[in-house]
Amino acid sequence: MYVCLCKGVTDKQIRNAINEGACSMRDLRDTLDVANQCGKCGRDCKSLLNESSLAGAASGSMNTSQFVAA
User: Fold this and answer.
1) How far apart are CA 24 and CA 69, in angstroms?
2) Number of other residues whose CB lies within 10 A of the CB of residue 66
3) DSSP code string of 2-70
């Protein structure tokens, strides 16, 4: 599903960036250039970051110091 219509970024691309180490909105902006124009995708990007951190915490494999709010 497209999350950022301005840049044509999908949820799969965002999830891949998170899996490759993006742990904040700043990282996603730098990597995928999301939330830089209209900003409507920001909420969905943050939700995907939170889902990832919660999933990692539930599995016990996440390093909690890796994720920071930005």
Assistant:
1) 6
2) 11
3) EEETTTTEEHHHHHHHHHTT--SHHHHHHHH-TTSSS-TTHHHHHHHHHHHHHHHHHHT---GGG----
- Tokens representing residue 18 in the block: 């998170």
* CB-facing half-sphere around the CA of 6: CA atoms within 13 A: 12
pTM of the predicted model as reported, rounded to 2 decimal places:
0.77
CB 11, CB 17: distance < 8 Å: no
42, amino acid identity: G
Lookup: tokens for 34: 């999301």
At 8-20, the pLDDT tens digits run: 999 999 999 999 9
Rounded Cα distance between 14 and 48, Å, is 8
